[in-house]
Please model this.
Amino acid sequence: MMALDGIAKRNFLVIGRVGMDLCPEPAGTRTRDATSMMVAMGGSSANTAAGLVKLGCNAALVTSVSDDAVGWYCEAQLDHYGIDRTHVKRIRGEERTSLAVYETRVEEHQSVIYRNNAADFQMTVEDVETVDYTAYGALITAGTVFAAEPSRSASFRAFELAREAGLPIIFDVDYRPYSWPSPQVAEEVLSRAGAMSDVIVGNDEEFGFMAGEVAKGQEKARELAASGADIVVYKMGPGGALTFAGTETIRTGIYPAKAVKPTGAGDSFMAGFLAALAGRHSLKDAVLRGSACASIVVARPGCAPAMPDTAELEAFLSSHPGPTAI
Model:
């Protein structure tokens, strides 16, 4: 699997959004009852980058933020987590950095995400063409970057440039319906991105969406693995995951956790999975370590702040029962 050579360099170029998260405090409080909020960095790509850095890798983010207090906050948070923001561009105009308000509760959980006229969708082809792709080992992105222009064209151009530089492309399907003009556009564009990727991670609903029918999701994941992707991880929530690599199928369980919220699991899984592959763990162990990271994050408030470092992950693995049997 050629993708592993790039991942082993432990130096990732991550394309996608950074935003501000607001969570009512204390845990369990509904937004409508809130009198105080925890503020933290959010955004799928930024969360994954933070998780990678905490696990001993290097990560640089490519995106756009609004030139205002929220955008500046995000820049400061990237610095706090040790994420290279050389390619984070400030923009002026009506576009705004994304804001998410979500509850630290599972029952009747509410997440409200403000993405109208989002600043990160203003990433351009010119922005991605300024990057020296040879300085990195692998490119990571999540499906949200493809939801609108000019970010869509810029991201596909980044895929082309990464391929020319010999970088593997790692794609988290991460389908968010509210970001897209229509399901039909999303299906076409995400399928195109998947066909260009070396490592693809998604859940059963996301692969089903790409296939045009949820029941055909597993078949779609197998098809992507057979047609060019080195690794395809098909996540099934409590049912664990199926990982397809060539002719091999690996079945793994999960680490049960008492969740305090449903958010952040996918970002943390990706960070743990890639950091483990970079550390030359077996593919099965890498999926399990990603699953452990996901369990840790859903059991803590926040997303980026909840990402485990290496010591926390090792302590969890040594003390926690699991994984579940498939």
